[in-house]
Each structure stands twice: as structure tokens, then as C-alpha cells.
Amino acid sequence: MTDFERNILNHYNIPSAFPEEWPKELDESDDEDAIISDTLGVRRSRSRYSALERSASERKSLLPGSQKTGEGKANLVQKDEPDPLGANPSVVTSLRNRGLPVEQDTRLRNKFMLSSTTFSPALFLSQSHSDASTEDLLRGLQYLTRSIDQKSASLKVLVETNFERFVRAKATIDNVYTEMRNQGVDPSAVAAAAAAAAAAAPLSPRHSRRTSGIHFRNISSGSAAGMQNPAPVITPSKNALRKETDYGVQGIRGPLLEVSQKADEVWGPALGGKEREGNLKSIADAITKDRALYDLGSNLSEAIKQKDYSTAVQLYNSARQYVVDARALSDSVVEKGRTLNDEEVHRILVIGRMWADADNQVKSLKRDIWRRLSNVSSALPFPGFSQTEEHMEMITVLLDLGVEESPIWVYLLSRYDYLKNKISAVVERSKIEIEILRRRLAASDKPSPQTVAAFLRQASKDSSVALDTEDVIDFWDCILTYFTKLLSLSSGLLGEVVDFWDSAQAFIDGTRQRSLPTGFQGESSKHHQLSDTEVSGLRSGAVDLVTLIRDAVNSLLADPPTDDISALFSPIPGSAQTPTTPLAPTAFSPTDGRIGRLDPQNLPAAAVKKGEPWEDFAFWPPHSNSLAAVKYLEQILKLLGIAVGEIAVLRPVATNNPAVVEKIKSMISNARDRSLRAICEAWSKDAECCRYLEEWVRAPDKRDQTRLPLYFEQFETKVLLGMQQVMYFSDSSSKAGRDIIAPPPSKHLQMARTQFVSSIYKAVSGMLENAEDAGASQEDEWVLVSSLEAVADGGGPNELLTHEAINVSSRNVRMLLTMSNLKALRNEHIPTLIQLFETSFSVKLTDESKTIRDVLGQIDAKLFRSYTRPIVAHLTKVIKDGIKDPSWTPNSSRPTQVRPYVYASLMTLVMVHTEVSTTISNAGSNSPLLGEILSFLLENTSQALLDGFKERQPNTYTLASLMQATLDTEFIAQTMSQYATPKAGEIQGQIYTELDKRTTNDARQRLQQELGDMRIVLKKLREGSRNSFGCFKRPRPSATDKDRGRKLTG
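The line above is the sequence of Exocyst complex component SEC5; the predicted C-alpha cells follow.
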């Protein structure tokens, strides 16, 4: 605000330099005697001497800056004054620093001025001393007390010194006024009237000149209300200084009016008739001669109403030409030393009146165009015109009409102000709405692991299905909408900033001015070129706008959630945060109004912090999973990368502005770092839920596995690909963007590597928990596969689907399927993921691969031991009990049967074979895990035989016992020969060695003689048990395998 505008506000005591209407309180008369009603209700007009009837205490101050309070008292306030409590030398400066518009709003300023009668102590203390302590206020009270005492002492001395002068001056003034008022009135009548008035009226503490003289008018008006004895009527002289006598001129006023009226009646028609005829004729001739001159004003008014600016400009230029011609005529007359004739005088007068009318209309048109050009958002384009074309049209009109200030500069400056205020409003509103949504989401219940797993399974689907709960997706959409509004080049604020600079650059280069007019006689050509100061200001403005957008992006991505959301409901009018340029009719809302109607007294409170990772992120929806995070953050950083590329080529930023470039690089670094942290935290949480990906449903093409390995691979693949996009800004193809976006630092790569290995470990650990889960029902329980909609919506049983059901209640079934899944992960899926990671991030996971293989091996071995331990214990007990049984010793010298424990052990192995083959075998082939399990059990069976024969008592073997032990051992070894291992063969050799130690030489020699018969017995026994133990036979090659073999040999 300029000093001139501020003086206008102070002088007229108005709130704005350009008010739409005059304040009603300033229309009220300050003179109580302007209209006086006597007791009969007669209203009398105010005379020129009415000011004499006012007392000194009731006269209106003629000084500017006064303000009238609600009680009618004048209020003369200084523009500034020191703090009455002694804290600051200037109250206005202190309030201005606090953001209050005290220089623009004089009424608000007066509330803080102690010299004002509208001074508000509560408002003064709450604003000027809001942060003062109790000690500060006590010191201020002492300072105020001393100030009051000093002023009171000075005033007391002044009154005591001049009291007699005051009394004498007051008495003299009252006496002179009374004599002038009561001229020609009997003093005794005046005294009687005064006594009657004093008796009738109550005693008033007020004392002024009205007591001695003015109230006689009311007494003489004939009103007897409230009186028992009416006062006598006073008849003043015609020269008395009273309103009834027109203050002494009543005697001559009537005759003068009568004489004037008679003169007009007698001589008026005679003197004015002929002159009027001549005037009318000359006017008619002049109008006929210069019809265009006389019609110019009305035609200009019509053209302005119809917004026909080209016609208006032509008419205005014609008017200016008339003025030029008239001025030339006047100059020529002066040069020639002659006088103007009547026709020339009349023409100059007509041109003057025409010019006054045209100039007023054009000034009004200029004000309207200036207003629309200054308020960019309020300028609606004409039909068929874009907003830019409409602005150029207004600039063209102003240049044609001629203006003192450059419309180009005003347009660019107003557009800068509009964009700056719009960015601030959008950012502040959006941040608050986002925080409200975040708080609501944080207060909601955390989704169960089963619900999270149901969404993680969606990674295997190519269609655009929901990747998280509706509230979380709504929050992500809000974040994406906000960043699109900020960074989009087609529909966002950055696009408007780029358009603004393109327009400014066109004006700076002079290309846009080629089509602009130079005005009447070239007067507007000076506005075609922007000054160096203006060019520098435009460049600084463009940088400021870019910085605002950069700060908004960085604030949401890098700063923690805001704590203050009250600004949404209580913005301070006129503060620095309140836009002065009108915004669009509909304010931008990233939620599209979905936050609903909020009660300012019942705002959503900040959630109690529980150590959740999302509590430090303003842009991360609470309880969001990693799939939704990578999907939306990938889009957001894609927008950011494209925006950074566009900002980098913006000339004010690219030219000698390293500080801004560093800020942009810092924003990119913060965005990448915070996004990666959010993804890794969500990834870690999701990895803990991967155990719930297990549906216990067989994979369609691999029946020895469930669907979990495929789900896990697809989940990890989607997260890795999204993280790669976030880390490298892969979709930002702009060369300038690639130059300003630095490669990811090593800590980010290490973060990704660590989280990748951790997610695999957590998922595999969860698989182990699934296999060993002791909470499964002991009854037959079959898994039911449900759709995502049923899980997410809590659907009933009628929404569940059954497919490839598995008996989940069996621990062995869970163990076998988990071991098969682990082998698939170790051999197929995880190597694929490692290769994807190395390709995406251009690193080698040598150490990590070894760590993953070791972890998988350990967990696989743990599962294998957990599955085989009870079987080995059972086999060992059966074998040892059978060998220790007294009936084990053969009754005949040549045993022909193996002992029952052998059949029992083999039947246990048959059951294991059946369980494994039916659980994890593909159609037409056995699983490699079957051979591993049976080979391991065969080794433990052989070890049990060895231990049993060692522990048997008596510890000596006869020939018959030696033959029985050999039959038992060989029968098991030959039946399980398909699963024989070197270790099993070694243990069998140890069995024969131990038996040989515990027999005699004679028995040993005779055993050699009986080997041929024993072979015959073994053969018969094997043929007899062929049907029982046929599952242990080596499968014959199929016809397809034979054909393949022939082709290979051929």
C-alpha cells in the first residue's frame, strides 16, 4: 500500500482505498442540532449559524483520522504510538511483524492504540503480548502506572495554574452569547423562564453554555409537558441571534425575495426570448454541420456496452483528434494575435464537453479492464476465446486507448500473484485433507494377516484389481491426485508455471509485441519493451513459483505428518497466508470432498504412536501393503521425474541458478530415499504375512506343490520391478531429467539387497511355521479356497469355492508339501528372483545367493528331520524290540522265514511310500523327495538292525541265529535295493562284521556252506511278498522312454 493510499484511509476514516460503498456510519450527522424538533413535532432546518449553538464538548473535530464510537464520541487516534507497557517502541511495527494488517485497516489499528476510545485491552494483550510471561506483565503494569502518574501530575499543574483564566473566559463567552441571543428581551422574563425550566427539569450534572441560553428555546416553544406552571412566552427582537429570527436577517429577507420575484415576472420573457431563439438556431446548425461530433459520446457508450472494443477505440481516437484540432486552432489564433469568433468558441466548447464525456467513459472502461487484467482468475474469456487470447485482447485495448502503466507488466505480475496464491492455497488445503484422511485411517482397525495375504495374491493377476483395502486405495488416489495437480504439465500447477514463463519469455524476446498496437500517435510504443528490472523480476518470480512447488513436494515426501490442522477452519483474514487474488470459484480438493463435513470442535485427533513405521510418513497410508505402495509411488515418481526434466530446461532455473538446482536434486534424493524406505517397511511387513499365502491347494501344473511358491515369486517380482522404477526413475526419459537425477547411492542398493534376503527368509520361516502348526484340528479337516471378494468383504460360506482340497489336519501332509515347495523355491523360483534382482539393479548377489541357499538348506533339513524323526523312532523301536524278543531265536537249524518285525518295518516304509507318493508326486513320476526320504529311512533301518544285533542278549550267535540275522538283513536290503545308498551298504557291512565277531569259527564256516540255500529261501520270500512290497520296485521305462532311448542310441 502506497503512502498516498494510506493517507486517504486516514483522512476519510474508511477501511479500503477503493470501497464499493460509503460506510453507513460515516453518513450519520455528527451535529446533534442538524434537525431540531420542538415539542410540537415541527422539524426545522439547520442554519449557517448552527455551529454557534454547539458546546465545546460537542463540536466535531475537523482533523482527519477521527473515528466515531458507538456512543457518538469522536475518536482522534495517532498513526502509531509506543507500547503502553513499555515492551516495544512501536505498536504498529510489533503488530505488523505478527502478520496483522494494521496499516491497511485503520479500525483494527485503533483497537490497539491507547489514545483511541475503541481501544480493546483484551485484544491488545492477546496479540501484542501473547507470549509475555507473568513477570513481563507485572513490569508492564508498573510502567503503565508510572506513565499515568506523570501525565496526571502534568495535567493537574496545568489546571491549577490557569484555573482563573478558564473561569473568566467561560463567563465572558457565556455573557456575550446571552446578550446576542436575548437582544430585545426583558431580562426579568428571561430570569422567570430560566427559573421555571430549572424547577421543571431534573438537575443534570452536565454544565455547558446550553444551560444559560439554549434551553430558552424549548421553554418558549409552548410545551407544558411535565410542568404545573407554564413559563411566560418570550418574544425576542428581530435582530436577536436566534433561529426563529434567522439569526438577525429576518427583517430584510422577505422584501428582497418579493422584489426578485417581480423582476423575473416582468422582464424575464422580454429579455430571454430572442436570445433563446438565436441560441437554438445556432445549436441546430452546429449539430447539422458536425453530426459525428455530437453523436460520438452516445456511440462510444453503446460500443462499450456491447464490448465492441475496436469500435470504441476508433471513436476514442476520433475524439482525441477533435481535441488535437481544437488545440491547434487555439494555438493558431494566439500566434496570429486575433480572437476567436463565436462559431470557433462554440466549437471549442462543444469539443470540450464531448471530450469530457468521452474521457470519463474511457476512464471507466480502463478501470474495468485494469481490474479484470489485474485479477487473472476473475477474467472469464469471451465465447470462442481462450483465457490467454482474452488477456491479449485486453492488453491490446489498453495500448490502443493509451495508459501510463504497462499493461504487459501488470498482466504478467498479476498472473504471477495468482499462481503464487493458488499454489499456496492448493498446498495448504491438500496437506490438511491428506492429514485428516491419514488420521482416520490410522484410527481404523489393522487388517488381519489373512486379509493382507488375500491382496498379496493379486500380484499374480494381470488385470487391474484392488491391491489393498478401499480406504487405503482411496488415500493413495488422494496422494496421486495431489501430486498430479502439482506436477502435471497438462493439467497441473507446474504446467501453468511453464505457460506463464513461456508467455513472459515471449514478451521478453519481443515476439508477442509484434501484433500489439502502438496507440494514438505512437504513445504506447514505450510499453512494448520490458525494462531490465522487470525482466529480472519475472525470472525471479518464475524461480519462486518453481521453488514453491518443489517445497510442496518435498514437504509431503520428506516431512513427518503435520500436527496442526486447525488452519482448515480458522484462516486469519488479511494474513500472509490469505490470498489477495481471487481464486477459482471451486477450490481444489484432492479428496473431491470425500472427507465430508467436519466439526471444527471435533477434529480427528492424532493417533497414539505405537512404533509403527508409517507414523513417520505423511504420504504413506497406515496399514498399506507393498503392492499398493510400489504401484502408486512408481506413478508419483514418474510424474516427479518428468517434472524435474521440465524444470531443468526452464531458462531461469537452468541459467546461473545453482542453488535452485541443488534444491531440486535434494528433493529427488529425499523422494527416492523416503519412497524406498516406505516400500521396504511395507515389504518387510508383507513378508511376515507370506505364510498366509498358503491355501493348501495344489498348483495347476505341478501337483507336488501348492500355489504358494508361484504366489511368492509373483509378489516378489512385482515389488522388485516397482522398486526398480522408484530407484532409477526409469520412465523419466527426458535428457535434462537424467542429467539432474543422480544414480541411486550404494546405501539404497544395500537397503534393497538386505530387504530382498530378509523377505525370502521371513517367507520361508513362515512356511516352516505352517508345516509345524500344532493348532490344526486333529479331526479330518479339508481346506476351502476363498475368493478375494469373500475374504475382503467377509462373505459367508456360500461365497467359498472348493478346489483341489488337501487334508490340512495331517502334519505329515503339511510337512511333505512344504518340503516340496522349498525344493521348488530353491531350484526354480528364487534363482529366477535373484536373476531379476541382478538385472534390475545391475549388481551381483554372490554373497546373498549363498546366504539364501544356506537358509533354505537349513530350513529344508529341519523340516526333513521333523518329518522323519517319528518314523525313525518307530522303526528303531520295532526292530530292536523284534530282535530282543526271545522268540527271535529260530527253533530249527535252518530258518526259512524272516521275523515279523521285518514285515512290520517294511510295512511302515510302505505307508511312508504311499503317503509321500500320493501327497507330492506328479502324474506318472515320483517326486525326488520320495527317494530321499526312503533312502534316509533305509539307512536308519540298517542302523537300527546294527544296534539291535549289538545289544541282543546273549551276545553270541549260533549258526541258526546267524542265518536268521542274515535272512532278516538281506531281505530288507534286497527289498529296498532301489533306495540303497553307500551309507546303507556300509552299515550292512558293519552288521555282518558284528555278527562275525559274535559267532564261532565253526558256525562261520558252516554259514558259508548254507549261503546257496539261503539265497533260494530269500528268493522264495521275495516272490511271496511281491504284492505287498511291489511299490519298492524300480519302475519300468514307458514306451515313450524306450523310444527316446532308441533315438539317443541311434
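Note on the example: DSSP finds 32 helices and six strands in the chain. The CA atoms of residues 396 and 516 lie 6 Å apart.
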